[in-house]
Amino acid sequence: MLEASQKRARFITFEGGEGVGKSTQVKRLLAKLESRSISAVRTREPGGTPHAEAIRSFILQGRSESWGAGAEAILFAAARLDHVNELVGPSLAAGKWVISDRFHDSTRAYQGLTGGVDDNLIGALETLALDGHAPDMTIVLDMDPEIAFQRVEQRAVEDGLVLTGDRFEKEDLDWHKRLRDGFLEIAHANPDRCIIISADQTADALEAEIWHAVHERFPELHDEHGT
Q1: Which amino acids does the record list as binding ATP (predicted)?
Q2: How far apart are CA 61 and CA 165, in angstroms?
Q3: For an engineered disulfide with 46, which of 79, 108, 137, 227 has Cβ 3.0 to 4.6 Å away?
């Protein structure tokens, strides 16, 4: 029988560059957990709550770009603080697993390692916004950004959509390569929490690899069926 400490709700985050398939895999993992009668909620950053979604819209429309990466980091932290207080914390306290499309590592990668914001400021904002709610596991989906954007463009053509790009999607390829390096640096610096998985595979294959990693990480998933 599992100890009570092993039965607590888990907090899993997905990270990575633009177009690597995080949103799809968040949905699939949520469905996988729910099929095993595990109560879970899906959320995203910035966003997840009305106030955080308003900040998300403001930033991704490019309205904060002229303020600089430091100001954007503060805005993301404000959104995160509300997200943690209103959704992440209460959900975990209620015994629900939380699966988030991005969390604090994105601020460290985008505004910190890529945008040049001082690490002391990034660290202080993390301490404030997380309020002790660090993820139990972070899945970093890794892909060459050039391939990722080719996939995004191909999907848009297939769906008859016109790509406009948000605040960060509009950055040049070199910027996105540095962003990828930033996420890998974070993952290598936090091996107990982060796992790097190649996103350059089919969605089904990626789903299977993610589930294997999650299943291996958390003993409460090792039920009598072993699946």
Answers
A1: 16-23
A2: 9
A3: 79
* 135-194 pLDDT per residue, tens: 999 999 999 999 988 877 776 565 555 445 555 666 788 989 999 999 999 999 999 999
Beta bridge partners of 195: 139
Q: What is the pLDDT of residues 48-82, one digit of tens each?
A: 999 999 999 998 888 888 899 999 999 999 999 99
Q: Compute the chain's Rg from CA coordinates.
A: 17
Contact 81, 129 (CB under 8 A): yes
Measured between alpha carbons, how far is 123 from 129 in angstroms, rounded to an integer?
Answer: 10
Is residue 44 within a helix (H) or strand (E), and if so which, with residue range? strand 40-44
Tell me the C-alpha distance between 199 and 203, whole Å.
8
157 is in an annotated binding site: no
Contacts of 117 (CB under 8 A, 6+ apart): 69, 70, 73, 111
21 in a labelled binding site: yes
Confirm whether residue 20 is marked as ligand binding. yes
